[in-house]
């Protein structure tokens, strides 16, 4: 990697590490990361973020968490790393208790959840069958008026995933004042549910397709 005239810096290393991560070659990515440190080139927040994201995609969450907590020990600010990346990884792996603790830790730093984080929370709860927690979160966001229209889709998709049609219908009736409409991904889920049980067709109210304008 080293050339005669150009010494690789942290940016060069980070770009190559990113390439390995994109290919799922995490052993090579980590080896190069460690090699960079051995050469007294200090990784920056971008370097850590690349490696953390790569490990999360490979569902190697322990490695991700180890790197995350290593950031502050090396004098960098972990607030600049996307908490949402690790949060999603934890939910996808079914580690809901740890995900909730990690989210609480995020809040304790003073960070506020954005749309992406809230969608991950809703999706994570539904993904793990925690429907009541998902709905409590949604209604909390509705009270705060925080992006609830966009997250209506997450809620409906969560109901459909677990074939909770009656709960979905009740929810949709409550949301009629929000000018709700199905998007393409929601329709796809709905068709799948009806295909498995055609008797549900008459239970589902007709809502328009498209997006709110």
Automatic annotation (TrEMBL):
Keywords: Repeat
InterPro entries on file: PPR_P_subfamily, PPR_rpt, TPR-like_helical_dom_sf
PPR repeat residues: 9-43, 44-78, 79-113
Domain of life: Eukaryota
Membership in a protein family: Belongs to the PPR family. P subfamily.
Alphabetized PANTHER family for the sequence: MITOCHONDRIAL GROUP I INTRON SPLICING FACTOR CCM1 (PTHR46128), TETRATRICOPEPTIDE REPEAT (TPR)-LIKE SUPERFAMILY PROTEIN (PTHR46128:SF358)
Name of the protein in its database record: Pentatricopeptide repeat-containing protein At1g62680, mitochondrial-like
Species assigned in the record: Nicotiana tabacum
Lineage: Eukaryota, Viridiplantae, Streptophyta, Embryophyta, Tracheophyta
């Amino acid at each position: 990697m080293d050339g005669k005239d150009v010494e690789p810096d942290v940016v060069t290393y980070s770009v190559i590490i990113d390439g390995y991560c994109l290919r799922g070659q995490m052993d090579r990515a980590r080896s190069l990361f460690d090699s960079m440190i051995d050469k007294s080139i200090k990784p920056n927040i971008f370097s850590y973020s690349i490696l953390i994201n790569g490990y999360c995609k490979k569902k190697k969450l322990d490695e991700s968490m180890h790197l995350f907590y290593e950031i502050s020990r090396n004098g960098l600010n972990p607030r600049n790393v996307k908490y949402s990346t690790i949060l999603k990884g934890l939910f996808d792996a079914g580690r809901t208790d740890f995900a909730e603790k990690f989210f609480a830790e995020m809040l304790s730093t003073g960070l506020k959840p954005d749309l992406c984080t809230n969608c991950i929370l809703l999706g994570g709860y539904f993904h793990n069958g925690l429907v009541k927690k998902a709905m409590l979160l949604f209604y909390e966001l509705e009270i705060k008026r925080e992006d609830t229209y966009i997250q209506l889709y997450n809620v409906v998709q969560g109901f459909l995933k677990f074939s909770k049609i009656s709960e979905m219908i009740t929810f949709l009736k409550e949301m009629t004042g929000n000018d709700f409409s199905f998007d393409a991904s929601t329709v796809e889920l709905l068709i799948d549910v009806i295909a498995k049980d055609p008797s549900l067709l008459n239970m589902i109210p007709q809502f328009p397709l498209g997006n709110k304008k």
